[in-house]
Design a protein that fits this description.
The chain is an alpha/beta fold. The chain starts with a helix and ends with a strand. The protein is 42% helix and 17% strand. The protein folds into two domains: 174 residues, Aspartate Aminotransferase, domain 1; 221 residues, Aspartate Aminotransferase, domain 2, CATH 3.40.640. It contains 14 helices and 17 strands.
Amino acid sequence: MQLSDFGRKLTGEAGILQLMDDLGKAMAGQELTAMFGGGNPARIPAVTDALKKSLEATVRDDHKLAAMLGNYDTPQGNAAFIDTVVAFMNRHYQLGITAANVAVTPGSQTGYFMLFNLLAGPSNGARRRILFPLVPEYIGYADQGVAPEMFASVRPRIEKTGDHEFKYHIDFDGVEARLKKGDVAALGVSRPTNPSGNVVTDPEMARLGELAQKCDIPLLVDNAYGLPFPGVIKPKATLFWNDRTVLSISLSKVGLPSSRVGIFIGPAELMQALTSANAIVSLASPGIGQYIAEPLIRSDAILELSREVIQPYYFERATKARKLIDKHFPADLPWRLHRFEGSYFFWLWLDGAPVTSKQLYDRLKQRGVIVVPGEYFFPGLPAARAAWPHAKECLRLNFARPDAELEQGIPILAEEIARAYAAEPRTTRAKHLIIQK
């Protein structure tokens, strides 16, 4: 069977395929010591109970049940759900939006696939690109371009703090230089950033918004872990919005990953284009998640769940995992964790280690510990990855695991880190943009 260029792209090696394959096998019962690799939200009893009650109320309503199970919604999404989202965002953030500013897609990843390809790629004889102003970025973006070389990105500035911590910052000189090429169709950032948990600061968001307006391009902001819900953000942060911004919100990280509901809020013209693409690609978006979440959003119960249950749960898990890491990781080696600012992950940098993240992934997998190699999280830097060791020195770790997994898996991870640094050193080292504190 001969596949098209696009078919070969979809069936080739992809980090998101490896991530979901490992996650699926682990959830299916494959014996593991620690599942630090997946992005599945934790099963929190209070969240499950709230979702169950909402579903039960819908099932008891014969009209809603028949509509949820038997009716297609419009390609834009369920009308009542959209109206609830509009009222919620205007009530809490004074956006002044209408239903025309909202589109619902079968998960935010599918929505970004459509948005990226609506905006970037060949256009009137030129090639347009999505620019990520800071990498690493979400693993699911990397292979979403239908056209080749659809993504570009800028290396971050790295602030080292203390002996074993660091933080990424946007290199705006690099971003502005890249924008001057005139081929950027949109800026894209996640906040908190998956994988690192980095929260792009309010001043950085304001500057990105100014650049987007100046260049007359959209600023795409993925809020899957951030505002308004579940809001798993440590530092003070505000929701950024202007007339060039597209915000995405996901129901996955509040406990409904299998419902596949992505909510996009942005300029009406672009949301209409996204709706049209959704009609062609998906016909309509799944309704069950919209029906479950609608009363929770309408009543603001989803905010209470986020503040009182989800955020404390992940902050406690992060604290527990960090204490174990500090206890077991070799103190005399130059490993660093990205400062925990949000999301459900730690981002581990093995500065100067002669073993790549893929090699370490294989070693850990043999011992029943699943992580995600960092090499997949640098979209838009295909040539630079080989020349920039940092892109091969990082691992993403899901810290929101049960105590037994943390207590058994972290010592194994520590042993393999010590083994990695004990290998033959590399002959060359590339420079980083470093802010030393």
